[in-house]
């Protein structure tokens, strides 16, 4: 008896490895495509621009929508989204925007959408980001409206606004702008203590205008309650002709452009190299470990678990969705690695809606993110975070099953239909190209710096 068991082990291992390799070959072209898109986004969309639209000035609802849209395509790994979200929070994003970004970013990316299309079908590939977007927006708006900012945070926010006013005043002085409330007016280019007038006479500058001199500026908020001290060194000199039109409005456009052009610009060649490095060296390293583990688990499911077991216990009823929800919430798995697992379960007889509960809840939550939300946003936000994701996952699963039924689509017939678009030789070539990139990425991460988790 024991001899039969040991003799079957090599057959079991080889069967699992063959199944895993077949899944990897099917996924490889779409993973490489996703990496390329992620690299382009990384170069074209700087982090500063993203943060600019997530601040409190965007409003409680608009900031949440902006955060969800910004996080949806971002190639941030699961460990990377936590410091990124906390950074956005510290820069002035409200609770809802932070929560929305934290939910939308790890659930989907260009790579996970591509592999969903490859291993499942177009309907699932379209439904997945839409459900993610709805979940992130709902959670963010609920947090802003039901919980909001605590008094301590709100007080701090007011102080930060006062400090920001002071910084704006100082910067506006450098470019020759007088600040008064939320408006500004042009002042003399010589940045002196007097403003030239058309009659040639001098008049004292506006009370909020600060002369451009080296030293320390004492800047007060409009209420006079907040005082900031800022050391400055003149970096922009007056124009040679000392013309009085260099502030804001139409007359100041040239001067402001000169100020903004101080940023370092990269050449096209440098951008391309950065895109390629991120897409095919850094990003594969981030997801390689968990991607390969996910594919191996998918191979185990495909080869070792009988279809009757899945059909009997995890078919498509409500209890099956609850089981997948309980499994997915604490599990640490990335969006890309969860896809082959879900595809293999669907192939064994699980309903697409039940599999989608796992696809939504798994990447969105884990013990680390729940802990961080409770620590930085509060326990109430953490409860709302898990609760909204759970409700949306179950609701999306029920809706997806209804869509397949209503449209008359047999998921077993469409499963992997996108795979047939590419010849086997091309898919094999992509797999041979991708595997060393992922192995090198793992080696580089283990012997270098950065996080080792995945998107």
UniProtKB/TrEMBL annotation:
InterPro entries assigned: DUF318, UPF0718
Keyword terms: Cell membrane, Membrane, Transmembrane, Transmembrane helix
GO CC entries: plasma membrane
Protein topology in the membrane: Multi-pass membrane protein
Localisation: Cell membrane
Key word Transmembrane helix present: yes
Top-level taxon: Archaea
Segments traversing the membrane: 21-44, 64-85, 287-306, 318-343, 355-377, 383-405, 426-443
Statement: the UniProt record of this protein carries the keyword Membrane: yes
Family assignment from sequence similarity: Belongs to the UPF0718 family.
Protein name listed in UniProt: Transporter
Organism taxonomic ancestry: Archaea, Methanobacteriati, Methanobacteriota, Stenosarchaea group, Methanomicrobia
């Amino acid at each position: 008896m024991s001899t039969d068991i040991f003799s079957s082990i090599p057959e079991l291992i080889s069967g699992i490895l063959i199944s895993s390799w077949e899944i990897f070959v099917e996924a490889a072209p779409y993973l490489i495509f996703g990496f390329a898109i992620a690299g382009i986004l990384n170069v074209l969309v700087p982090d500063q621009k993203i943060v600019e639209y997530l601040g409190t000035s965007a409003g409680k609802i608009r900031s949440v929508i902006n955060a969800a849209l910004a996080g949806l395509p971002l190639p941030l790994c699961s460990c990377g989204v936590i410091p990124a979200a906390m950074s956005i929070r510290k820069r002035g994003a409200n609770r809802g925007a932070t929560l929305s970004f934290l939910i939308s970013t790890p659930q989907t990316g260009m790579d996970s959408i591509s592999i969903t299309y490859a291993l499942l079908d177009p309907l699932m590939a379209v439904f997945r980001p839409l459900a993610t977007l709805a979940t992130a927006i709902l959670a963010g708006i609920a947090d802003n409206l039901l919980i909001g900012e605590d008094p301590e945070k709100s007080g701090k926010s007011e102080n930060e606004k006062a400090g920001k006013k002071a910084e704006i005043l100082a910067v506006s002085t450098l470019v020759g702008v007088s600040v008064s409330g939320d408006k500004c007016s042009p002042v003399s280019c010589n940045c002196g203590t007097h403003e030239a007038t058309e009659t040639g006479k001098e008049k004292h500058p506006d009370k909020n205008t600060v002369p451009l001199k080296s030293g320390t500026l004492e800047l007060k908020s409009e209420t006079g309650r907040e005082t900031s001290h800022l050391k400055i060194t003149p970096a922009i000199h007056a124009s040679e002709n000392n013309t009085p039109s260099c502030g804001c409005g139409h007359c100041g456009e040239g001067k402001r452009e000169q100020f903004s052009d101080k940023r370092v610009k990269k050449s096209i060649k440098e951008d391309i190299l950065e895109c390629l490095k991120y897409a095919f060296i850094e990003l594969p390293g981030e997801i390689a470990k968990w991607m390969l583990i996910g594919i191996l688990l998918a191979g185990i499911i495909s080869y070792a678990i009988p279809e009757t077991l899945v059909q009997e216990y995890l078919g498509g009823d409500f209890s099956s969705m609850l089981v997948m929800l309980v499994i997915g919430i604490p599990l640490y798995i990335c969006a890309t690695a969860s896809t082959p697992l879900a595809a293999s379960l669907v192939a064994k007889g699980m309903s697409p809606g039940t599999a989608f509960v796992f696809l939504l809840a798994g990447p969105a939550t884990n013990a680390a993110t729940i802990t961080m939300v409770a620590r930085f946003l509060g326990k109430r936000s953490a409860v709302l975070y898990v609760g909204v994701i759970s409700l949306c996952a179950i609701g999306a699963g029920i809706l997806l099953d209804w869509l397949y039924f209503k449209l008359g689509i047999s998921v077993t017939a469409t499963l992997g239909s996108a795979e047939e678009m590419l010849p086997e030789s091309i898919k094999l070539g992509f797999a041979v190209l991708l595997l060393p990139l992922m192995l090198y990425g793992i080696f580089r991460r283990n012997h270098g710096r950065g996080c080792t988790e995945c998107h």
